[in-house]
Amino acid sequence: MPELPEVETFVRAVRPRLVGRRFLSARLSHDDVLRGVTRRSLLAGLRGARVVDVFRRAKHAAIVTARGTLVIQPGMTGSLTVRGRPAAAGEYAVLQVRLDRGGQLVYRDPRRLGTLLWLDAPGWEAYTGGLGPEPLDPGFSASGLGSILAGSRAAVKKVMMDQHALAGVGNIYAQEALFAAGIDPSKPARDVAPAGVRRLHRQLVRILRAAIAAEGSTVRDYRTGSGARGRFQFELKVYDREGEPCVLCGTLLSGTHAIDGRITVFCHRCQT
DNA sequence: ACGAGGTCCTGCGAGC
DNA sequence: TGCTCGCAGGACCTCG
After folding, report:
1. Which residues 36 to 65 of A reach strand B, CB within 7 A?
2. Which fold has domain A142-266?
């Protein structure tokens, strides 16, 4: 599922093919992906708009035009590409926008848990302001992470995945960072000791950077901007490995649904 | 402030 | 083989 590294990967792929281009006609297959915007105003806003910037914020892709910003939150199965031909039927294309000088921006989302927003400048400021800090921002420090964790008694993994607390981290990378840092995912966030916070900060940044370098993790149907599989799934140590041996100590990995109803795999011996 | 549970949506794997 | 069923996921909501 697209988390920070996966969204960063397809944003990097589409950015050079979008900036400076003008949107021609747009097609939307389903209205249920829209949040706070009607089909009519989205399509009218896109038509004729010129792209001035494309970037990632948290797990969102933001496509900025002078008229408004198209925010794509890919949810679990969403992906963004620029391609030469329109998507065929059965490719789950939700939004397709024709570009001047040829090509199409295609947002695919088989399960449509993703959402599309169309925001003006103040709307974007309010939206991004409600999200937590970027973990790969140079200003994001261990003490910054520490103050986020200190503010909650909820499970540390749940806090890491809360987009209003920390941006971009989802189920895969939260589990991997907690494993690498040797921290029990169910531990109350504010009980993580300072040394643990420093390890967690270091490991989270390391893992996110490595995942971007590997163009993300293809667990199911995520693909890079060029349609290739990511390579970071081969580096995953705990995600989807319940019952398999811990790579550090050989103990069989545990799995639980007890943290926010999401599957969490961890080593009860290495993570305390 | 927290956990629990429901909602959206559909592909897929499990089970019969 | 062919069906039904329940799960999976992120974000958001309500309730206790």
Report:
1. none
2. Helicase, Ruva Protein; domain 3 (1.10.8)
Q: What is the pLDDT of residue A143?
A: 95
Q: What are the residue ranges spanned by the domains of chain A?
A: 4-129, 142-266
Residues 205-264 of A with CB under 7 A from strand C: 257, 262-263
CATH fourth-level superfamily of A4-129: MutM-like, N-terminal (3.20.190.10)
Q: Is the CB of A128 under 7 A from strand C?
A: no
> Average pLDDT by consecutive 10-residue portion of chain A (272 residues)?
90 95 95 92 96 96 96 91 87 94 93 93 93 95 95 93 93 93 94 96 95 83 70 86 92 87 90 94
Token pair recorded at residue A76: 């679990």
Sheet holding A93-99, edge to edge: A23-28, A93-99, A104-108, A79-83
Amino acid present at A214: A
CA of A260 to C1' of B4 (A): 9
What are the structure tokens assigned to A212, written together? Answer: 């971007």
